[in-house]
Amino acid sequence: MAQPKPVKEVADYIKECAKVLVVGCSGCTSVCLAGGETEAEILATALRILRKKQGRPLETLVTTITRQCDPEFVAGIAEKVSQVDAVVSLGCGVGVQFLAEHYPDKWVLPALNTVFAGGTVQAGLWEERCGLCGDCVLHLTGGICPITRCAKSIQNGPCGGSQNGKCEINPDTPCAWHLIYEKLSALGRLDLMLEYRPAKDWSKERSGGPRLVQRKDAEL
After folding, report:
1. CA distance 174 to 163
2. Which of 18, 60, 143, 177 has its CB 3.0 to 4.6 Å from that of 158, i.e. a possible disulfide?
3. Which candidate, 46, 44, 47, places its Cα nearest to that of 63?
4. Is the C-alpha dihedral spanning 138, 141, 145, 146 positive or negative?
5. Cβ proximity of 102 and 67 under 8 Å
6. Contact assessment for residue 5 and residue 110, using Cβ atoms and an 8 Å cutoff
7. Is 218 exposed, middle or buried (CB count within 10 Å of its CB: 0-12, 13-18, 19+)?
8. How far is CA 44 from CA 5, 34, 38, 59, in A?
C-alpha cells in the first residue's frame, strides 16, 4: 500500500531539473491506484502545470513498467532514463531503490510514501494484515496475526486492558486475541492457546541490514 506525496513536494525535489522521467509501476502501487499508468500521466501533467505557473517550463517523459522491483523490467527503460535530469518513481520504496541502484548516475526520487502491506477489506479501503516480521505464527492463531492485529503485538493472549472483546488502545477496534480465541474455539483448537510463545526474536525483522530471501529452487 502506498500513498501519493503532495505534488508541490515532488515539484520541489525536481526544482533544478528541466526534464524528468515519471515512471509508473503496474505492480502493487497500481492496485491501490497510486502508481499505475494513469497516475503517472496525471502526476506528469500536474508537475508541468505547476512549473508553467512558476514561469519555469518542465519537460516530462512518462513510462510504466510491469514491476519496478524486477531488474529485468527496470533495465528496459535505459534509453528514456538517459534523456532526463532525474527519474520520479511511482513505485514502492523497493522500486525506488532498484531504479537508483540500476542507474547510479541518475537522480531517482520517490513520488509515493510506502505505508504498509495490506489487503482489500472493501472497495478502496486497505487494512494492514502482515508486519513482514519473518516469523509467521498464523498456524497457531487461527490465521489472525497478533503482530499487526494486536495494538501491542502481544504473543501470549490478551493484555489486562481489553474489555468485552475490544482493544484497550482503541475501543472501536476488536481485541485481536479475542478474535483468535473465537476462531480457535470454532475450530476446536483451543489447546493452541495453551502453547507458550517465547519472546519474539526481532532480529529477524528489521535489524542487521536488509534481509535476503531465496526461492528454494533458484540458484544464486
Report:
1. 10
2. 177
3. 44
4. negative
5. no
6. yes
7. exposed
8. 13, 13, 10, 9
